[in-house]
Amino acid sequence: MSTSNNPHAGKRRSLSIEGHRFLIVGGASLVGSASAELLLRQGAAEVTILDNFFQGSAENVEHLSGDKRLKTVRADVMRLAQLIEATRGVDGVLHLAAVMSLTMDRDPWMGLDVNIRGTQNVIEACCVNDVKKLVFASSTAVYGYGPGIVGDLVETMPFHSVGAPTAATLYGATKIVGEQLCRAAYAKRGLDYVALRYATVYGERQHYRAANALYIVETHDRVRAGLRPRVIGDGSETKHFVHVSDVARANAAAFAADASDVAVNISGPRPVTTLEIVRLVTALAGKDLQPEHIDPEAGKVRLTSGGPWQLDHSLAERVIGWRPEVDMRDGIARLIAWRDAAAK
Amino acid sequence: MSTSNNPHAGKRRSLSIEGHRFLIVGGASLVGSASAELLLRQGAAEVTILDNFFQGSAENVEHLSGDKRLKTVRADVMRLAQLIEATRGVDGVLHLAAVMSLTMDRDPWMGLDVNIRGTQNVIEACCVNDVKKLVFASSTAVYGYGPGIVGDLVETMPFHSVGAPTAATLYGATKIVGEQLCRAAYAKRGLDYVALRYATVYGERQHYRAANALYIVETHDRVRAGLRPRVIGDGSETKHFVHVSDVARANAAAFAADASDVAVNISGPRPVTTLEIVRLVTALAGKDLQPEHIDPEAGKVRLTSGGPWQLDHSLAERVIGWRPEVDMRDGIARLIAWRDAAAK
């Protein structure tokens, strides 16, 4: 492409955190709260949390309320005018607002609206107000689910949907659409962006909306009530998680890196099986309870795969200089400590 | 699933054409006009063409206007109320309304609206009015584009997007979403459907909106003006077409077959290369012109693949009892004859 056609000519592709203003769309969330905390710690001039508080909650960012650089705006990704207002003067936007497979299953109409129209609106607002960089929360769901998912998931892996639940395929398709809308905005309107394909995020302020994270929180709910934990089937199914603090670091790294127009995997140090998760949660909760193996429940959304797999994150290391630091033993210990403290 | 939970209990999955009422959404089109003609010939009690005439044209169905069973409704897939009105008393709905990659490239916002929200609206209207069967026009685009596309494309093939244009990936994603919305409506609301994954459709009443069909019509435009036809690159790129009369037969077969909740490929007898297409069009136009090989134009949407491939249609034969009848020599001859007649 010639320089005259290049909307990026002369632009920097890195956005340092210090002294800059950030907006986190869908920020009153698991990932949003940890990211806001980190951006403030790294010297951001201002961090604004935008949320409609449908899924997010004010409690998630309460621990940051003492910081005068933190602002909160009640707004909705379905309302473009609110996003245009909220992005005025902002340097970097982190777009997290989305519904996941469980909500998509209950209401695909709303799910498609929030994930697709919401992302169109965020991109439009970024372009209108010359936001310097967008970090888009994509997902490992862009590789799909079902028996086709096996081996190393690298960024060139195609999307598998045969044998996958409708809601999971719809969710994955919305993330594919989101990434392509970013690509189109980069090519045609000069918007720099990095898409991060998160593995299943877990950690402090964990909610019940992510199908895979239920393996952690539902196990913890049972064992702390003295009940035997449950494992679906033989427990050999692979899952790959990433701790929320590592995701927050990846978001900050994506802004700061000299990278644009790229999508990279963000995953924890190594994958686990569902049986390992259940045993780990039980042990870290200080319980001596043997898991019981149960049949999958009909009608429940389960994100299955075809055998051992892992979400390879080596491209993220090369492109944004990031790698995970928190292994699951530490991460689950932190999650349990937070839940124990919250229960008091 | 127990019978009590099965919304399909006791329902027939086949819908014979004779004596039944059909609605073709996006019907004033290449595929719509041929399908309306065939449904009328097979004894349909009524065929209603619904179109907003943004892409479709009244000319496309003018040849059927003498038949009192044909009705035309000006309405828009973005207006649910109009679809609910139009599906009242209808037995079968053929949903064709969509924008393709070239339009998606110019305006992804509109493209996502029409292809996703439009399909949501059509499905909603079908469920509200207890339509017996929906035939959804999906596309080979659900397998994607780029170097991953090679070999036999069977219905279990995943979606490839690496190396593909943004607009083509967005278009493919909208068809994946459409199929999954049909699946969800089948499972939760009892709507019987068949999704047909059309190869590139060509034939009488050909338009300029399909990137691959341009290989036919742009070649014909040049050679009938006495200009040498153009081939992009060495012309070895594989394309797979299907004649519009075969697509119309597939649509009717999908209604009549005892099949539901399935997606099948609809393609012509065999694939061709772009050089073969150009030579065939030139010869059938009665011209003795040698093709010139040109470089791909920057910025133009091209639907590339990784090597020889074909869209396997054997599942369609097993499931809806259909196979293609028109080879490309006959099909292009019919297309050229129609263009010559239209030019007079």
Could you give a short description of this structure?
By secondary structure, chain A is α/β, with parallel strands linked by helices.
Provide an overview of this structure.
Two copies of one chain form a homodimer. By secondary structure, chain A is α/β, with parallel strands linked by helices. Chain A has a domain at 17-199 and 243-268 and 310-325: NAD(P)-binding Rossmann-like Domain (Rossmann fold, 3-Layer(aba) Sandwich). The first copy, chain A, is built from ten helices and 15 strands. Chain A has helices at residues 30-41, 80-86, 101-106, 108-128, 166-189, 214-224, 244-256, 274-284, 314-320, 328-343, and strands at residues 21-25, 46-51, 70-74, 92-95, 133-139, 151-153, 193-198, 200-202, 230-232, 238-239, 241-243, 262-266, 272-273, 292-294, 309-311. In chain A, the strands form five sheets. A seven-stranded parallel β-sheet of chain A has the order 3-2-1-4-5-7-12, with helices on both faces. In chain A, α1 (30-41) packs across α7, α2 (80-86) packs across α4 (108-128) and α6 runs parallel beside α8 (274-284). Chain A is globular, with a radius of gyration of 20 Å. Chain A binds chain B through residues 1, 108-109, 112, 116-117, 120, 144, 148, 155-156, 158-162, 166-167, 169-170, 173-174, 176-177, 180-181, 183-184, 187, 298, and chain B through 1, 108-109, 112, 116-117, 120, 144, 148, 155-156, 158-162, 166-167, 169-170, 173-174, 176-177, 180-181, 183-184, 187, 298.
